[in-house]
Amino acid sequence: MPEREITYAEAIREALREEMRKDPSVFLIGEDIGVYGGAFGVTQGLLEEFGEERVIDTPISEAAIAGAAIGAALLGMRPVAEIMFFDFMTLCADQIVNQAAKIRFMFGGKAKVAIVVRSPAGSGTGAAGHHSGSLESWFTHVPGLKVVAPATPYDAKGLLKSAIRDDNPVIFVEHKLLYRVKGPVPEEEYVIPLGVGEVKRRGKDLTIVTYSLMVRRSLEAAEILSREGIDVEVVDVRTLRPLDEEVVLESVRKTHRALVVYEPPRFGAFGAEIAALIAEKAFDDLDAPVMRLGGLEMPPPYNPHLERRIVPQVEDIVAACRELMS
Amino acid sequence: MLSVDEKLRMYFTMLCIRRFEEKAEELYMAGKIWGTFHLYIGEEAVATGACFALRPEDYITSTHRGHGHCIAKGADVRKMMAELMGKATGYCLGLGGSMHIADLEGGNLGATGIVGSAIPIAAGAALACKLQKNNRVVLCFFGDGAANTGAFHEAVNLAAVFKLPVVFLCENNLYAMSFPVKKAFAIPDIAERAKGYGIPGVTVDGMDVLSVYEATKEAVERARKGEGPTLIEARTYRFRGHSKSDKGVYRTKEEVRMWMERCPIKRFREHLLGEGVPEETLRDLEKKAEELIEEAVRFAEESPELTIEEARRLVYA
Fold it and tell me: Is A77 close to B128, i.e. CB distance below 8 A?
């Protein structure tokens, strides 16, 4: 029997539903997640099943959403907050960075902030400067937080289930352009541990290290390059913090060339941390300097032709690989 | 009505706060406590009156000026003093310090160094109380400064529309660091803000422990009945500066003296004497508070410190 295929959004919804059925302390809180079903439809149908007590629509108050999740977690709940667009994470950054991330440590390890903050990131929808951000790098810089950015429906479901069960605050980065992408997701239950990357494609000539939407584009690029005789390995780190260093290093030690691909502006983004890791721990294995392919240094423009240019496209990844092989 | 015994416990709590703060100041001067802290001296009636209106299983959230809240909620002053000295026996193992004391077992969900940031957390704790149907109430302390943050607006509104079991207690000590409420608010009473959220608002004399108690009790009962939050504004005054960096240039000596004459402890002492409590009983309590704090200092001084390896293990669960 062929494996069932569902979308990334459906996979996330399934993870939420399964965890809510399993654990009464899990509840959802956010803007328009109830009757509206979420701005991207992710929580559709959950209000009907779990009621207003567990699918909580709030006023437009991001700081209160995040803060309420934290306060409820201090009393043993496992809230999953939805922040409608990743750009709006700035509105609750104090709660996430100063409270959620630090409370356990500041209180001597006695408090538990088991929250998940889900939010759609990324450009490509024509939503311009305030609804297209990829700000995940900021949160990877905060000890106490975990940051997860799945690339496939299978990973999204398995990682979200782990994130909900995790006793730490987890920032769950969803990509808008992946929501409708279908992929195999088994009917039976499974989880994917946080902090474990995966080789998404085996190859011997060059390693692409990436995450989220860029995994998909890198895989497409790899197919094109394979026709030219360039055999690309694609490593999806899946969790940005804590980072699975071994899956990256093992691959680079095999291929001797590394390209880091990421959507946020190139300068100072999380991809630079991966490049630094390779330079520090696999320098002697490299046949060429680590290369980074990131976004342009510009706020997301509205014009569709310009918007497309600021984020690595398949052809950009192909070109970067060719350059790295030359 | 409060019994004489209960009033004496209140008096003892206020004394413990005062002595704790005086001792902390002394230790700071002697170089035994470092960093900075925010003393609660002068405001003892607020924390005491409010926390006595709670049940032991209820919760509070606290502020950067939080020692008084902590003691009034029933904390162990030894663990508090150890925290101020950065010791491993402190409430937060010496990792939080003065501004981040939490006593989770005692229902104190913690102090915060970001003004206003605990207000949404209090709303969230109250949301959990509602979801867990545990019949508990959250008392949220914050200052006049916090009442002008966006977090205040978002959280009070959220609690109001969800009818959460929380009491918002604004300790209006008339200055947000140096900025006077007269310049920070275009309304005379912060409690008036309640109207904008459709909840009751009340202003009380924060130098009178019994007034604070009565107002909080009513608000707590309302919250416990599922009728939602109340905003209480307690007018009070800090006798010391904002923090250890305060040079005292923004308040007149006359103003400070005038408020010090209204000392909440002196006032309550007179009330108790008027009720026929023998002075000797009060003196015994005063001595007992003194001894308790001395014992806390001994405990803290003899305590070990955490290693960096031990601290590192506490970042993630």
Answer: yes
Angstrom distance (rounded) from CA B291 to CA A3 = 73
Helices and strands per DSSP (H, E), number in chain B: 13, 7
The residue length of chain B stands at 317
Domain presence at residue B284: no
Contacts of A144 in chain B (CB under 8 A): 315-316
Residue A281: other Cβ atoms inside 10 A: 15
Domain, as residue range, for B163:
4-251+289-312
Candidates B237, B112, B140; CA nearest to B181 is: B237
The answer to whether A66 and A29 have CB atoms below 8 angstroms apart is: no
Find the CB nearest A67 among B102, B120, B315: B120
Distance CA A244, CA B298 (A): 46
Tell me the pLDDT of chain A (326 aa) as tens digits: 668 999 999 999 999 999 999 999 999 999 999 999 999 999 999 999 999 999 999 999 999 999 999 999 999 999 999 999 999 999 999 999 999 999 999 999 999 999 999 999 999 999 999 999 999 999 999 999 999 999 999 999 999 999 999 999 999 999 999 999 999 999 999 999 999 999 999 999 999 999 999 999 999 999 999 999 999 999 999 999 999 999 999 999 999 999 999 999 999 999 999 999 999 999 999 999 999 999 999 999 999 999 999 999 999 999 999 999 99
Domain count, chain B: 1
Report CB contact under 8 Å: A71, B109.
Answer: yes
Rounded CA-CA distance A130/B302 in Å is 55
The CATH architecture to which A198-325 belongs is 3-Layer(aba) Sandwich (3.40)
Q: Is residue B299 part of a domain?
A: yes
Q: Which CATH class is domain A5-184?
A: alpha beta
Using CB atoms within 10 Å of the CB of residue B51, give its burial: 0 to 12 exposed, 13 to 18 middle, 19+ buried: buried
DSSP state of A247: H
Q: Do domains A5-184 and A198-325 have the same CATH topology?
A: yes
| Burial of B47 (C-beta count, 10 Å sphere; 0-12/13-18/19+) | buried
Among chain B residues, CA nearest to A76: B128
Query: Would you call B74 an interface residue with chain A, using a CB distance cutoff of 8 Å?
Result: no
* ipTM of the shown complex: 0.93
The domain locations on chain A are 5-184, 198-325
Chain A nearest-CA distance from B253, in A, is: 37
- State the DSSP code for B42: T
Q: Is residue B73 a part of any domain in this protein?
A: yes
Chain A residues near residue B150 by CB distance under 8 angstroms: 63
